[in-house]
């Protein structure tokens, strides 16, 4: 078993209207409650970071999956939407939907159409974030292929 630790330091002073700070090896960002939820909306927030983590993990996993499947001339973009609900007195992320757009040559497009559902599933199951939140957050993938 390989183990790797990801270290993040977070600080906060005051109540819900204040601004905190999150720092990791690379990330350095202010955090607050989103203005849409009654906070001051400065910087990012944990909900956005969860969706960003899922989205970035999935696109990297999809790129690696397509590369292993011999699709070499690709361009990927992804829009991810996290849908949160308030139930039983608390918020929770209910679902994250990824909308990857895969651009590639016409020749590769023909081959990809046949294999896409399986490759999308493989990418999802190789994504550490998907694996970490599975069974708590529904993950959907709705891909588009374009040339």
UniProtKB/TrEMBL annotation:
It holds the Pfam family OsmC. SUPFAM superfamilies: OsmC-like. NCBIfam families: perox_SACOL1771. This is OsmC family protein.
């Amino acid at each position: 078993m390989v183990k790797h630790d990801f270290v993040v330091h977070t600080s906060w002073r005051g109540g819900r209207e204040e601004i905190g700070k999150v720092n990791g090896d690379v990330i350095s960002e202010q955090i607050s409650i989103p203005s849409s939820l009654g906070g001051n909306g400065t910087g990012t927030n944990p909900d956005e970071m969860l969706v960003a983590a899922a989205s970035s993990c999935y696109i990297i996993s999809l790129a690696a999956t397509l590369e292993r499947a011999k699709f070499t001339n690709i361009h990927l973009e992804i829009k991810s939407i996290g849908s949160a609900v308030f139930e039983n007195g608390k918020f929770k992320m209910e679902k994250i939907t990824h909308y990857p757009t895969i651009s590639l040559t016409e020749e590769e497009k023909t081959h990809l159409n046949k294999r896409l559902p399986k490759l999308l599933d493989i990418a999802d199951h190789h994504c550490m974030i998907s694996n970490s939140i599975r069974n708590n957050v529904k993950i959907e993938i709705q891909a588009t292929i374009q040339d």
